[in-house]
Amino acid sequence: MNKDFDDALKEISTQEENLKNEKKKLKKRALDEICQIVEKIGLTPEEVHKALTPTAAKYRDPATGKTWTGKGMPPTWFKKWKADGNDPKELLI
């Protein structure tokens, strides 16, 4: 192979390794900051886990297949379903 090409491949490999190491450092710093905040405001591990765990969908729009967990503001399709006099139980997954 061409020496310039070999040098370029070596440089790419070095840069990829540097990027990987920087990403590790950033992740560690981010986790350290998150832990400090969690401790400072008194969150429990269970509260953190619950906040990070996706909530399963509870309702499905039969027309589009879109879903809603049943938490937070209801989507337009759910409100329309109810406004049209339909039973939300029919949308349960």
Fold topology:
Blueprint: H1 3-41, H2 45-52, E1 59-60, E2 67-68, H3 76-83
Antiparallel strand pairs: 1-2
Mind explaining what this structure looks like?
It is a single chain. The protein has a two-stranded antiparallel sheet with strand order 1-2. The protein has helices spanning 3-41, 45-52, 76-83, and strands at residues 59-60, 67-68. It has two domains: 3-52; 59-91, no CATH class. With 93 residues, the protein is mainly alpha-helical. The mean pLDDT is 94.
Question: Which features characterize this protein?
Answer:
2 domains; 2 strands; 93 residues; single chain; 3 helices; mainly alpha; two-stranded antiparallel sheet
Mean pLDDT: 94
Number of helices: 3
Order of helices and strands: HHEEH
The largest sheet has its strands arranged as 1-2
Taken together, the total number of domains comes to: 2
Largest sheet: 2 strands, antiparallel
Query: Helicity range of the residues?
Result: 55-70%
The number of strands is 2
The unreliable regions are none
Distance between the ends: 60 Å
Structural class: mainly alpha
- Based on CA atoms alone, the radius of gyration comes out at 25 Å
Give the amount of beta strand, in percent.
Answer: under 5%
| Overall 3D form | elongated
Summarize this entry quickly:
By secondary structure, the chain is mainly α. The chain is 59% helix and 4% strand.
